[in-house]
Amino acid sequence: MYHNLSEKYTTKYPVLDGMDVDVYKRHTGEKIIEEIKQLALPLEGKELAHVNSTFEGGGVAEMLRSVIPFLKGLGLKSTWYCIEGGEDFFVLTKKFHNLIQGVIQNYSVQDILQLYIDNLKENFNNNPIVADLTVVHDPQPAAAIVHGEFMGKTLWRCHIDTSEADSLIWNFLLPYVNHYDGAIFTQKSFVKPGIRIPAYGISPCIDPISVKNSQYTRETALRVLDPLIKKYDIDIERPMILAVSRYDVHKNQPSIIRAFKELKKKEDIKKINPILVLVGNSASDDPEGQMMYQNIMNEVDSDPDIWPLLNIPNNDLNIGALMRIANHFVHVSTKEGFGLVVTEAMWQGCPVIGSNVGGIVQQVVNKQTGFLVEPMSVREITNYMHFLLNNKSQRDEMSRNAVEHIRHNFLIPNLIKKYLILMRYLTGVEDKVPYFRIR
Ligand code: UDP
Predict the structure, then answer these.
(1) How far is CA 38 from the centre of its chain?
(2) CATH 3.40.50.1000 fits 218-409, yes or no
């Protein structure tokens, strides 16, 4: 059975019932909020549902926590359904995820038939989703379009980088995907041949009023961090290089660790004496997380200047505060659908050393808000770490640029606006093709 998470979040996040969207004006200015309200007027009372596979960990859950109350605040109905599955189901769908991102994995056709499809049938059996528009996120629930029942229009939202997807698995998913009324990709290069439905380009966004993205002063951030600093005995007086992400093969934390170890060999760095803090978690639909964390620990090899942390307490509060006080942020994934952590770090004023892959390229403006590097180029990463620690004025300018870049492009009202335009189009309120249609 799938869960209607709205109930759960009503108690956990009181704003889920709908919020006053005007509070966003402080961050975005009036114009876009007023535009959104106009777009929403004819949709009042209509329902936009979302289906995904985890309510904690990862970027999708992160965004839905904000999207649902925002839509409700505009007078729409909005629901969040989360499919259930056993460990074997999520092991299999994690393989899908990896295969779509181009990593070779073993899998059997029998697993696909028995585990994947049976599980979706079980979730959706006698549970039709009734909504004017339902957005189904990522491969885990994708086949529900055939094995479940949807009353209303449907969109498949793909959050991952499909550009080098394994052809077998992609060809397995493709007929399902083509059953939807449309698909949403983070960028045009992810739209593979074989997609016969309209495709739309939408970037993920962050919520500036969430706990994680509150922009503290440095003093407040340090106060917030006090229990964490004490718990892990972090030497906070030293300049911090920060990396935050799931412990996952594509996140490429080992390159960050190697680059940091190289950095420490530089003579002038000894005076600066930086630390590296790695923060990671493991999503409930990601069974590889623990194993990956162990690999990271081996790579760290008890280096006293590196803090590899797993599932930190008060996650959101502490992550935002760490990003606020770090000298810079490093995110060098080998594959990345978008990389919300990059958005979050930039919003907190961290210049980002990011890899030149997937959605990171949309965010990091090379030499203005950070630096773009080859993900496996330890030398480049080391050099830019060195630069950012040594050049305060350029570092601070990049910090300011980073905040403004996110403000103008990647705050949640931008995402809501596109959802509303799509909903107007698909439900017949508007016949103009959305300007962000990419295929
Ligand atoms: N995240 C977190 N705690 C952690 C690691 C990650 O809250 O220990 C959050 C992070 O802040 C971001 C999300 O998980 O909001 C990860 O999204 P992203 O798009 O970067 O990567 P994904 O995990 O979806 O591949």
Answers:
(1) 28
(2) no
